[in-house]
Design a protein that fits this description.
117 residues; mainly alpha; 5 helices
């Protein structure tokens, strides 16, 4: 019985994590669509968001295909923004671990070695 409860708990945590990631991607998508449709002042937007959005896009871009299979979201507007010439230099040489917020002391997933079960 405890194995069943443990499995349910793990599924619930996975679902909560997925929902949090999906909500964050939807927020980034909204910002990206506002930028690409000219709804915001582009110079101010770039100064305010380019660094942060570039880092988050680099973190998520490898998982977008996997994530969209679960909910049908594509986040095409976010990807489209990074296809624009003015955003490409932001991705050159982005190293996720060096851009992680030191205040939170988070280690990028690329540096985490899975522990054997």
């Amino acid at each position: 019985m405890s194995d069943i409860v443990k499995h349910i708990d793990e599924d619930a945590r996975d679902k909560k994590l997925f929902n949090s990631i999906r909500i964050h991607l939807n927020h980034l998508e909204g910002l990206a669509v506002a930028y690409t449709n000219g709804v915001v002042d582009r110079d101010t937007f770039v100064k305010s968001y380019k660094e942060t959005m570039s880092v988050w896009f680099m973190r998520y871009k490898g998982a977008l295909d996997f994530l969209k299979g679960d909910c049908g979201c594509t986040w095409a507007g976010l990807a489209r923004m990074f296809d624009l010439t003015e955003w490409k230099p932001a991705l050159d040489g982005v190293e996720v671990p060096s851009r992680t917020c030191p205040a939170v002391n988070i280690v990028a997933a690329a540096n985490v070695v899975p522990t054997p079960k």
